[in-house]
Amino acid sequence: MSDHSLQTSAQPIAAPEPLEQALALQSRMPLVRIGEALLALGFVDERQLGDALARQTQERHLPLGELLVMSQAISRQQLEQALVHKMGFPVVDAGRFPVEADAIREVPVAQAQRLCALPLMVRGHRLIVALEDPSARMVIDELEHCTALKVVPVLALTGTLRPAIVQTYVGTGTTTTPAQPTAQPAADDGLDQPASVIASRLIERIIADTRSGAVTHVHVESDGTDLPLTVRARRGGVLVPYARLPAACRDPLVEQLKAMAQLDRGERTQPQVGLIEPADGDEHPPLQVTTIPTVGGQEDVVVRRRTRPRLRALTDLGLTALNLAAYTAAIEHASGLVLCVGPEASGRTTTMHAALAHLNTPERKIWTAEQSVEIIQRGVRQMQVRGSGEPSALSALRAIAQADADVVMVDELDDRRAARLVVDLAASGVLVLAAMTGSSACGAVSRLMSMGIDGDSLADALRGVLDQRMVRRLCPHCMRWSPADGGQLESLRVAWCADSRATGSPAPAQRDHDPLAHWLIEYGRNGVIGIPAAVGCPHCDGTGYRGHIGVHEWTEVDRQVLKRLQTTTQIDLPRLQGPATERLSLCQDAIEKVLTGMTTVAEVNAICNI
Ligand SMILES: [Zn+2]
Question: Which are the contacts of 223, defined by CB distance < 8 A and separation ≥ 6?
Fold first, then answer.
């Protein structure tokens, strides 16, 4: 931070313009947590901070800084110094600041007094509020919940806040009655304005937040004519409260969203899907609006950004070195079928596009038949199949078979005749990458056989199967290691060994007969095996996770075994994959991803039991 910005943020501000400048400065500063700030200034030591964090798990309503002041670990001046100098919060002289009437209308007096919060001004969908502790997340959350605005907190100059709240509200004539603490904000807070205005403002905020990626989905949920309208949003994979509006706002909100997404406003009994397209010249992606009729003649609305999956490199998928080498070798063959299996949303398309990017050279002709083209690659000829007015996967593949292909990609192989065609292509000099919905290599082979493809043809075509799942990746800024306890290690060991036995490895390495000793050598620190946990910080919206990572199992199929297969009942994994090679099961790969700090046991438990 430069001397200039220190100066600016430390001067009490008493006018809107300098405050906006100070906030702009703060937004460019690196994010620092209050604990880190106090440590850096030497106001607390690790032990005091640890104690306060532990206490905070019991007293969640108290911000960390406040807890430290109450326990007299630091003084209020020290807390303020950390907030200003390390976290960059502007200091506002609440007594002299010309509070704007628009802002006052957003927060009823009782709530302002209970939370000790003075709304200063509204800019776009942001409400700037002076607080005694601008790091108090609970206060900010409640205000955002009630106003449907993004709350930007600033620090009130010591001693100016409480008198200013009384002065301001009395001065504007908003109330003369003494404040009564209310347990919950009333549902009709903010009905000083027409419902349609509140609704359009919430829509502005929804659009801004989904576009910026602050939230991925917004759910508007109606419970009945007289009940408040609840709005929840998904932040970093978790649904959190987003806004609560008076019942009167429901119809205008739903109507406006439908109109913006070009949906039929009169239709309230059928689900509808539409897009809010950005204006010409606006680079933002469109937003998808889905309306779903629910019981009692209500309609729910879900808004989400139509994000296109990013094109990734093969090395960026989370494949282990062994899996990466094996998968790359398989796709570098001039012909053959390489399958990618997994449930919906397991990242199969991302993996296959990474493979195509690896193969995409001027000497190769690459065709794709995709149900939904979400990643576009220059040099790859892509066909959208299945939509109305588009060819089916089968007719697309028939055309491709006549079109001099070197490489063909199919993003969902679920049709008997298409599967037959793909296997024939793969056996006749074309490399085919195909995805199937399923949960194992055996399942995929069995499915292909039940589609009428015999073991002999499969043996000629199939090179291998990549079984894949997706888990959330731990946020590197806030993830925390703690020593694994005996119970955790035992359940990891049991899961690991169960899979080692299932794969029937004839000469188990140390990794397989004594995984604990192996992990201690590979991942131990000071003789201890650590387990990572999600914590939450501003970098990850408080969820503890950022992005996703794949979990894989690569199975190279033994052609001799496949050739002899007559019925699907003869399929079992150890025989299918032939002589044991050094390989990891899906679950073992997941365990390694926990031990190396990429994801958590909770994430892994969602895809396999450990
Ligand atoms: Zn984080």
Answer: 229, 230, 298
